[in-house]
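Trying the structure run again after the queue cleared.
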Amino acid sequence: MSDAPTDDALSEHWLTVPDLVEILQVSPGRIHRLFEQRTLLPARVDGVLKVPAEFLDDAEPLPELRGTLVVLGDNGFSDDEAVRWMLTVEDSIGVAPIAALRAGRKAEVRRVAQSLL
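Done. Tokens:
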């Protein structure tokens, strides 16, 4: 049995592509381009691509997110692994990386992300 937190425990609110279309007021194709550019990143939750609501700042992708997601991808993280890392408390920073990004600790989060291999 795994001690890994469930998806529901990682994020209180997961957004589907249709949710993102409505919130960001863009086409589904644009949402998928945001995924490809790593401006937003989905995970498979119950077989459906979903993005944690924490990745948005009002009705926009959190600006600090993309660089961190690129670093994680460069370090070999799958999209699912990167999303889950962003939402899981990281001992070296004391909070989940997404919480640290939202608190203005971008450099610290990226340093930790770069050290992961």
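Strands lie at 14-16, 43-45, 48-52, 56-57, 60-61. Worth checking whether this holds up in the mutant runs.
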